[in-house]
Design brief:
By secondary structure, this protein is of the alpha/beta class. The protein has a domain of 233 residues: Rossmann fold.
């Protein structure tokens, strides 16, 4: 069987990548009380002009085995052989301009690698994308010294307080990563090229909901997107006036679909800047990540009627158009023509709101 492969990035630039270990000595780990420092692994994807050598690995064998634990129909190391399109430690493409930065937060239990297709595509269009492993919330996080931090929350009751802690903790992780990249001694040589006034964030599931928490806490994040994640009531009564995109699956996040969609309807009036609410027909929850298209390739389809590769095409296109509009001042048609070009996508308005409500 052919090796599982991520979709080719659509932009004009080859893509470089690097992984970085960060340690926040100002706070203990929120989940493992005896660990005095919050340690994180991040991956950075960026445009390069000199691609060379082998492609970057997707996951280590140890990470793959833990992510696939319980999936008896798939070889445990299957995700360590996924073909990516980025070149490890290739130099950042030269140029005088500053580059917009997108922070990416994966779903609960999912590794940062699950957003690689999105990150590679953004980097191929001239963005820098940074995905965070939220340690102990994911199945496994491998550190450079050989340690592998395991998922530590199997016995935690899934109460509203638990999920709020997840989302607000991820917001702190995101702000710490920004502090490191934008500070005086950044851990990545390309950080001097980052545009501090053009920062966005997007995430899947809990990572999407954490994007709201991060924007409320950190005004550096100028635009945000929640992909298929139900939210907590974190937006203050004064509202959140920066651009925001909801992108989810039809049947779960269409207005009136139930508790998950109700969280978006609750937040909608409090989003006082530019906003859109899109749903995708035929998608399942993992369809918006690499796991949807890899499941198709590995012979374990998710039951979606829209393929994983097609949903990833839609996800990459919508996110890039959103950030182009709000971090690069791209023209209006770059976003609002998407629904015409992608018939699986439907634009929603919560019931009871006037037709022109919130459209800026």
């Amino acid at each position: 069987m052919a090796l599982p492969t991520l979709p080719t990035p659509t932009g004009p630039h080859p893509v470089g990548t690097t992984s970085i270990h960060l340690a926040d000595v100002s706070r203990p780990d929120p989940w493992v009380t005896h660990v005095p420092t919050r340690e994180l692994m991040i991956s950075v994807w960026y445009p390069t002009a000199r691609p060379a050598g082998p492609r970057a690995p997707y996951l280590t064998r140890a990470e793959s085995e833990r992510v696939l634990a319980g999936q008896e129909a798939i070889a445990p190391d299957s995700l360590s052989s996924v073909r990516t399109h980025a070149f490890p430690d290739a130099p950042l493409a030269p140029g005088p301009g500053r580059l917009p930065l997108i922070v990416l937060s994966p779903g609960f239990t999912r590794p940062r690698a699950s957003l690689t297709s999105i990150a590679e595509d953004l980097a191929s269009h001239g963005y820098v994308a940074v995905a965070i492993d939220h340690t102990h919330e994911t199945a496994a996080t491998a550190f450079p010294d050989g340690r592998v931090a395991a998922f530590a929350l199997g016995g935690s009751p899934r109460t509203p307080e638990f999920w709020r802690k997840v989302k607000t903790g991820r917001a702190r992780d995101a702000s710490f990563v920004l502090d490191q990249l934008l500070g005086g001694d950044p851990p990545w040589a390309g950080a001097a090229r980052l545009a501090p006034d053009r920062i966005g964030m997007a995430g899947h599931s809990a990572g999407g909901a954490a994007t709201i928490a991060a924007m409320v806490a950190d005004e550096r994040i100028r635009a945000g997107a929640d992909v298929d994640g139900s939210t907590d009531p974190l937006i203050p009564d004064t509202g959140l006036d920066r651009p925001f995109l909801f992108l989810g699956r039809e049947g779960q996040y269409s207005p009136g679909d139930g508790p998950a969609a109700d969280t978006w309807a609750r937040d909608w009036p409090l989003l006082t800047g530019w906003k859109r609410w899109l749903v995708v027909a035929g998608a399942k929850h993992p369809s918006f990540t690499d796991l949807g298209l890899l499941a198709d390739q590995l012979g374990m389809p998710l039951g979606a009627t829209t393929s994983g590769s097609r949903t990833m095409t839609i996800t990459r296109t919508c996110l890039r158009a959103f950030f182009d509009r709000h971090l690069r001042d791209a023209g209006h048609p770059s976003f609002d023509h998407l629904t015409a070009e992608h018939p699986e996508v439907r634009t929603c308005r919560p019931p009871g709101l006037p037709a022109d409500s919130g459209w800026r």
